[in-house]
Amino acid sequence: MDGKPQTITGPFGRFTRKENGLIYFYKADGITIDKPTAIKFLEIISELDDSGLARIIVIQGKHVEYTFDAQQTLLTNKVLEGLAYVANTTAQHLTAELLQDLAKTFKASFPVAVFGRIEEAEEWFLYHPI
Which of 78, 88, 86, 85 is CA-nearest to residue 100? Predict the structure, then answer.
């Protein structure tokens, strides 16, 4: 990628790679993420950053559900270097913490963190070694 922002939008939300190199995923409300959807997410991430070291900030939507297969697919991939969830509500925070715990269970090869604000997630990626 040449450093200019790039966006891919679909029924599941919007993926944007910004000039800072981070990919922001603004998740749509009311979606269920199954394994085929998770695979599509990883394909989009690879399209935006084909280094195998993508750093993604997920801004949670409301009423989003993950199947177990989707969780496993997302947390055991070889595309990400780091995954940060931004949770604004208690339900979003609990969901993100569950995914963080599952990453440990699945022995994810990348760190997963939960934040209350996008700026905190950006700081984690940009100013602290992963």
Answer: 85
Q: Using one digit for the tens of pLDDT, what is the confidence trace for 48-93?
A: 999 999 999 999 888 888 899 999 999 999 999 999 999 988 888 8
Segments of the chain assigned E as strands = 6-10, 13-17, 23-27, 32-33, 54-59, 65-66, 80-86, 112-115
Residue 47 to residue 95: CA distance in whole angstroms = 27
Contact 67, 34 (CB under 8 A): yes
Q: Which residue range forms the structural domain that includes residue 73?
A: 6-127
CATH number reported for the structural domain that contains residue 27 in this entry: 3.30.750
**pLDDT tens digit sequence for 93-106:** 888 888 899 999 99
Number of domains in the chain: 1
State which H helix or E strand residue 122 sits in: helix 118-127
Per the domain annotation, does 92 fall within a domain?
yes
